[in-house]
Structure to design on (388 residues):
């Protein structure tokens, strides 16, 4: 039987990878993530696991300043994030919390290293498709943000060995039951989420850290997602949608949202306080023509991100995006949720920051296109939720 998850193995690899980077053993680093000409596990290039404060690139900055010529090799690997930030930490040069590689170089007064970083560039945003084809859908590969996070935070989320024959949803169900079993378990997860989210937004991190019970924790997760002022939902959905890219390499910010994404996915799937919705919901999006044209009658697909919708048509407005690629076509989805399914949207309106009759789909929901028409300035697409 083929493995359905590699979480335990990946966890060991991540620990070896970051330990090697910290010790300046970049020959080991290259054997794991590869190089520009021979890429291997490049999706791990920006990971900062539970027991580390710095990523590989921050360690490369440090060792480059000590005379090891490693930074240019790392920067040449596609997916290397020059804007990746550290977790909260104090280093020998002082406070290096939430610092980019360039800021770490400045903190150590490595002017030559700063010059290397200044000459490096990040690739421009490319089109990130909103859907993933249903045919041959591989949940472990497609939900890469969740699987990489579970490996990077293995001791926090699932301290015991994980059966490689279990699918990701079953693994999450095991974690959910364990989370509810004791204060020690849910508090460890709360602290890991807050620690990682700090990279993105300190206020959100503090709000999560204040949770005194599981209900407060889940409330803070939902409110953080629905609070429009902080744009967390745009970053989270972009992190999820980036999973559809060929040669998936999550950014530093994507991975910082990983523990948060795991908890949000679990509460959407398993928390009884957010019941399933079987009525019709609506979602409006602004898409590029290339993406819009994929929604044709009969097409089965998967939405890999957590997706918001509303039971009230007037509340179905397109959300802003943090991507540099802006949509030009308005598309309105009318979604039939009558099929009994794990992917039915959840009613989060009692916990959301705003009353918008919001119903939210867990990441990985499956649909089929049942209708398409043009009305006024909008493209109207009818969807039906699939059971599996």
């Amino acid at each position: 039987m083929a493995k359905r998850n590699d979480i335990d193995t990946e966890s060991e690899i991540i620990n070896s990878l970051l330990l090697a980077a910290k010790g300046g053993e970049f020959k080991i680093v290259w054997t794991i993530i590869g190089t520009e000409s021979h890429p291997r596990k490049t999706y791990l290039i920006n990971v900062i696991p539970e027991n580390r404060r710095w990523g590989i690139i921050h360690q490369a900055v440090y060792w480059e300043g000590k005379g090891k010529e490693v930074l240019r090799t790392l920067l040449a690997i596609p997916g290397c994030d020059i804007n990746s930030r550290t977790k909260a930490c104090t280093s020998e040069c002082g406070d290096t919390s939430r610092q980019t590689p360039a800021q770490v170089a400045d903190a150590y007064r490595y002017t030559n290293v700063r010059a290397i970083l200044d000459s490096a560039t990040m690739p421009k945003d490319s089109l990130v498709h909103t859907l993933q084809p249903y045919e041959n859908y591989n949940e472990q590969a497609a939900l890469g943000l969740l699987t990489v996070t579970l490996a990077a935070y293995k001791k926090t989320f699932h301290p015991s060995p994980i059966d490689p024959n279990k699918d990701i949803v079953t693994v999450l169900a095991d974690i959910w039951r364990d989370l509810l079993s004791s204060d020690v378990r849910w508090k460890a997860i709360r602290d890991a989420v807050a620690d990682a989210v700090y990279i993105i937004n300190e206020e959100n991190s503090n709000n999560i850290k204040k949770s005194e019970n599981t209900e407060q924790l889940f409330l803070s997760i939902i409110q953080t997602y629905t609070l429009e002022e902080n744009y967390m939902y745009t970053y989270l959905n972009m992190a999820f949608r980036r999973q559809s890219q060929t040669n998936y390499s999550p950014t530093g910010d994507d991975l910082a949202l990983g523990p948060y994404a795991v908890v949000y996915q679990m509460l959407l799937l398993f928390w009884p306080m957010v019941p399933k919705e079987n009525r019709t919901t609506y979602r409006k999006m602004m898409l590029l023509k290339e993406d819009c044209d994929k929604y044709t009658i009969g097409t089965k697909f998967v939405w890999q991100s957590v997706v918001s919708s509303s039971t009230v048509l007037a509340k179905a407005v397109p959300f802003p995006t943090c991507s540099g690629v802006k949509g030009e076509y308005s598309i309105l989805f009318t979604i039939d949720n009558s099929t009994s399914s794990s992917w039915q949207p959840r009613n989060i309106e009692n916990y959301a920051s705003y009353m918008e009759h919001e119903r939210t789909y867990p990441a990985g929901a499956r649909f089929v296109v049942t209708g398409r028409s043009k009305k006024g300035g909008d493209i109207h697409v009818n969807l039906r939720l699939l059971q599996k």
Residues 7-22 form the longest helix (16 residues). The CA atoms of residues 225 and 233 lie 5 Å apart.
